[in-house]
Structure formats: C-alpha cells, structure tokens
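My current task is to audit a protein record that another person submitted. What it holds is a sequence and that sequence's fold in token form. Thanks in advance; the entry in question is below.
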Amino acid sequence: MPRLHMHVTDAAEAPLRVALRELRGKLEIPDHFPPTAQAEADSAARAPRILAADGAVATEHILEDATELPLFTLDPPGSLDLDQAMFLSRRPGGGYRVHYAIADVASFVTPGGALDAEAHHRVTTLYFPDERVPLHPHVLSEGAASLLPDRDRPAVLWQLDLDADGALTAASVRRALVRSRARLDYAGVQRILDDKTAEEPLALLREIGLLREKLEVDRGAISLNVPEQEIVERDGCYTLEYRAPLPAYGWNAQISLLTGMAAAELMLASGTGILRTLPTAPDGSVARLRLTARALGVDWPHHTSYAALIRTLDPRRPAHAAFLQECTALLRGAGYTVFDGTAPPASEAAHAAVAAPYAHATAPLRRLADRYTSELCLAASAGVEPAEWVRTALPALPREMETGTQRANQVERSCVDLVEAALLRDRVGEVFEALVVEIEEKDPTHGTVHLYDPAVIGTVEAAPEGPALPLGRRIPVRLAEAEPGRHPVRFTPA
C-alpha cells in the first residue's frame, strides 16, 4: 500500500534522528559528493556557463535580461532549493499571462563531467523526515542555481498565455537572467488570499488555479488531495498527525502542471522529447475501488466518475483519507517515454491522471529528467536541433529514472515504518481505535488499518481460524510489535 509523505518538526527527539542516520547507512545513501563532483560544483557556482537555445556554450552570447519581472517563489517554509518562480498578470485583450522561471541547471552542470555522472547516479533528491539528500551539491541546489530572492539567476523562462477560461493559447520558452523578489510559503499565501489583501499577481494564483482546476475536471483528470503524516510535539511527547494540503498548494501545482503539459506539446510537435506517461487503470481496479468506497462509507453515486468523486472528499475525515490513500493504487505504472525523430501515438503519449500528454519539467534541481526537458523545449521553441549531449542521454533516461524512483519509494516506505515504530515502541500491548481500510484477497484475516490517533498506518493480523476482517469498520486493535529498524508496526484485533 503506498505510504504518505512525512516530515519531522524541529522538536523531534534526538534518538529518532540517530535511527534515521542509521537507516541511511543501511540503504547505502551517499552522505557526500565525490571530491571531483564537488569541485566542479564549486567552480560552476562561481562562473556558470552561458548557453544558447540548443544547449551549446555561447561564446558571444549575452543572457537576455528579464530581471524586471517581479517573480516570486512559493514553497514550504525554510526551503532553499527553489526550482520555480512565477509572475502572473492579465493580458490587455483579456485572459492571463504566466511567466514561469525554472532553474537553469544545465548552466552549472557540464555534460560528461563528474558532477553530471553523479547526478545520473543519484537521479532524484531523496527526502528523509529529518533531512534531504540532494541531487546536486548544496552550493548549487541551495545556492547559485536556486531562485533565491534578490539574486540574479540564469533561468529557463516560460511565457504561457491563457484565455479568459484559463486554457493555454500560446507557449514559448527562452533562456534569461531573472531576479525573484519574494520567497513565500503556503500558509502565508493562503492567509492573505483568504483575507483578500493579496496584490494582483498573487491574487491571480487563486483565479488562474481555480480555472485550471475546472479545466482539469472537464478533461476527466485525477487530482488526489492525499494528507501528509507529520511528527509533532504535544505536551512534551511526540506523535503523528495527518495534515491536509492547503488550497494554495493545489493552485501552485496547477501552474507547474500547466508548464509540464505545455512542455509535452512542444516536444511532441518537434519530434524529440521525454514524456511522463501513465496507462489507463484497468476496469477491475476501478470496480475494486467502488467496493472499498462502499466499505468505508464513501458515497459514490453510479453516475459520478472516479475523477469527479475524489474532488468531493475531505482528507481531514479518516474514512476519506483512507479512501484517498487507496486511490493512489490507480496511479501505479507511471514511466517515461522517450522519442527522437517521430512522436509516439496518442495512446502511448498520454498520462492517464493528467488526461493529456505531460512532462516533468519544473524541478531540475531535484529530478534528473527535468534538465533534459528544459533543453529539448528550449531547442523546440527556438526552432533548432537540440544539443548532441541531450540526444545521446535520452535512451538511458527512462531506466535511470525508474531506478531512481524505486530508490525514492524504498526510502519513503522505510522512513515511515521506522518513524511509526519509533513512536510506538513503548506502547506495545496498548489498544487503539482503528479503521480497517484494506484486506488481503487471499487471506481476509490479514489487512491494513488506519489508527485514529496517532496517525499510523499498519498491518493487522487476526488468528488464522478467526473471522474475516470487517473492511470499512471501526475496530479496536492491540499493538503487537514495534521494533524500529527491524519490524514495522503490527496489530491484532483486540
């Protein structure tokens, strides 16, 4: 069962951090960059390369100055690896214009060098509850390449024109020098949007976000509002709670999604690209979800589509949160599709959850493929051929990204198991109220439960000769096992 993202507050206890360090060692997660890669990063931070649209070093090229755009970033509090910055405005003739700046990682990473090789080895930034293991050295990811406020930065600058309904009418992308004006966080943005004190560029985030969400519904796309698990301090003790994403998070995601869709269309038109693809879920999977919804007490009228249903759910309600977690099963099977010379047929180019072609394009500081998407889109927008170093890397990227994604998923599963076991290790034998959210088809005495408090997801195992677990029912369960680093939490019916 897919797990939830989790993070540790600053108040998290030291033993837990020690256990997480031990976990990184067990999973052989690198704790530093090779000296040659670090040296390349240090040098690039002092003097990034100036590149042309085709990804080649521009010996007589001066980077276009777009620092007059009052861009802002929107990320979790304290974030320093800032991939994107935006400026939203109204077009004089109606509609909207989105300027979206993406960190120009290729200006700092020389193809074929030690830093490039290390990025292809790491593939993605890995997120542990207490820290990140970055794709690129901190001097770049949190320094020279990051779109930090009040600093000039090379960027891949998208211009996306929308009509009055929020639909994309034109897209272009170029290299430029940009300067972000403000680093914002979701809670602060949500607050000023709700009290209507936001200036227009920020107020348009809600306006455009809502329009794009409506278009998403019209496409039949799937947008899961799955809550996060968070370790928090309560009266000197540590526990787990669910936290539902704020609406501002979704509106910001719509801008990123818009850019990824525009990137996909640009690459498809040029005949060379890398897409993020997802096959349509088989009918049996949706039918099984209908049974789960019925068991959890989630009202799913027959005339309501799956995509429409999930938009009505409240992730703060335990049954709805459990069902949203089950819905992630339909998103399995995502991969990357590369093409060079001929675009794939529509059936092989689509992303079922997006309900349109889509590309990972907006997080090059944290995800390897996005650097190549930027280069392919820059070349396509300029009407030139992409650099040979880009084309040469394309065939291996799907497998590299798959390996990196599997590693990230393993890290996430291991972290959740460790944290849950660490927080419950002294409570073995206690009884908790839980919701049965899944049972095994081959053995209905085994399944999965969501605890109401703390916010823990664990396995439950009844006696082999006992009755089947009651899917969707609230039952008392007894904690049978919780050994950090050895066994995840396990419950038995009480």
